Amino acid sequence: MKRMAKPAVHPYVSPWINEEIQLFRKNVKRFIAEEFVPNEARWREQHRVDPEAWPRAGEVGILCTDIPEEYGGGGGNYCHEAVVTEELCYAGVHFGHGVHSIAAHYILSYATEEQKKYWLPRMATGELRGSIAMSEPVAGSDLQAIKTTAKRQGECLVINGSKTFITNGWHTNLIVLAVKTDQSEGAKGISMVVVDTNGLSGYRVGRTLEKVGMHGQDTCELFFDDVRVPAANLLGGVEGRGFYQMMEQLPYERMGVATGAVATTEQAVAITIKHCKERMAFGKPLIEFQNTRFKLAECKAQAHIMRVFLDNCMERLNAGKLDATTAAMAKYWLTERECAIIDECVQLHGGYGYMMEYPITRMWADSRVQRIYAGTNEIMKELIARSL
Ligand SMILES: Cc1cc2nc3c(=O)[nH]c(=O)nc-3n(C[C@H](O)[C@H](O)[C@H](O)COP(=O)(O)OP(=O)(O)OC[C@H]3O[C@@H](n4cnc5c(N)ncnc54)[C@H](O)[C@@H]3O)c2cc1C
Question: Where does residue 289 rank: exposed (0-12), middle (13-18), buried (19+ CB within 10 A)?
Answer without folding.
Answer: middle
